[in-house]
Design goal:
Number of strands: 2
Largest sheet: 2 strands, antiparallel
Radius of gyration: 23 Å
Strand content: 5-15%
Structural class: alpha+beta
Distance between the termini: 63 Å
Strand order of the largest sheet: 1-2
Order of helices and strands: HHHEEH
Shape: elongated
């Protein structure tokens, strides 16, 4: 059973934080709050009620194109110039 006082406390704390102009970590440090709890309550209280739990997995479905001879694998490009190549078949280095 949820504690209404706790719920109300975090609603006020998050509201105060938004107008403070501070980062979440700085706000928590200034108020002697546990940052992990701050993150938890921020996510809990700002969750869209239309979102079903787990409906946004953070994954994207990927499929290969049949007959594309150059599609040896999948390249994932990340921020900062980091790339990761995943082969769908033995890598060229292992072929021969």
């Amino acid at each position: 059973m949820p504690d209404p006082d706790l719920h109300q406390f975090w609603q006020k704390a998050l509201s105060d934080w938004r107008v403070s102009g501070l980062s979440g970590a700085a706000y928590c440090k200034q108020r002697s709050l546990v940052y992990r709890r701050f993150i938890y309550w921020n996510q809990k209280l700002n969750r869209n009620p239309d979102d079903k739990a787990g409906s946004q997995s953070g994954f994207a479905r990927v499929a290969t194109v049949p007959g594309d001879s150059e599609a040896d694998g999948l390249t994932i490009s990340l921020p900062g110039g980091v790339s990761c190549l995943l082969y769908t078949s033995p890598s060229p280095r292992d072929r021969g």
